[in-house]
From TrEMBL:
One Gene Ontology term of the molecular function aspect: metal ion binding
Coiled coil: none
Keywords: Metal-binding
Record-linked InterPro entries: DinB, DinB/YfiT-like
Protein name in the entry: DUF664 domain-containing protein
Residues binding a divalent metal cation, per UniProt: H49, H145, H149
């Protein structure tokens, strides 16, 4: 992971989330909340989990003293206490949350430096266990986690009759960068 790669992944994240939510919006809310036997159950719960994970990690990334801009941006995004915590009461509210969070991610990714990525971050997981990991590894995990669960959501949407289309990083339009 490099600073340029983080910026690329933030752009891809924003683009794919927009497409994923536009595709999901074609379904009625009841279909979005229908348990489909996936790890998080429904399409909406899977999309919610991605937002939960992103919010938790951003709060961890905001710990260093130099991350005051990220801390300020997260004022409107309280730290979730569970990986399944519902962040919004409706799909429309979750879509707005996602779009705002993606703006924070894009801004934050643009601030990453080689010096930051070479350092380590001490953080606690949701169970309270402390870890020390390299920033490079954690930022890579952050973006990989999104992609992994969007793949699950894409499959659930396809099974519900909605094709999200190409999801490959190489399909990211240059105007999204």
């Amino acid at each position: 992971m490099t600073p340029d790669a983080a910026v690329l992944m933030a752009a891809y994240n924003r683009w794919m989330n927009r497409r994923m939510y536009e595709a999901a919006a074609q379904l009625p809310e009841a279909a979005l909340r229908q348990d489909r036997g996936a790890f998080f159950g429904s399409i909406q719960a899977t999309l919610n989990h991605i937002a939960v994970g992103d919010t938790i990690w951003l709060h961890r990334f905001a710990q260093p003293e130099a991350a005051s801009a990220l801390r300020e941006a997260l004022r409107h995004f309280p730290l979730p206490t569970s990986l399944r915590q519902e962040l919004a009461g409706s799909f429309t509210e979750l879509q707005r949350y996602r779009a705002a969070l993606d703006a924070v991610i894009a801004q934050w990714a643009g601030t990453l430096t080689e010096a930051r990525l070479e350092g380590e971050l001490v953080y606690r997981n949701t169970a309270g266990k402390t870890f020390t990991r390299s920033w490079r590894q954690l930022v890579l995990h952050f973006f990989n986690h999104q992609t992994h669960h969007r793949g699950q959501a894409s499959t659930l949407l396809f099974q519900a009759g909605i094709d999200v289309g190409a999801t490959d990083l190489i399909a990211l339009p240059t105007e999204e960068l």
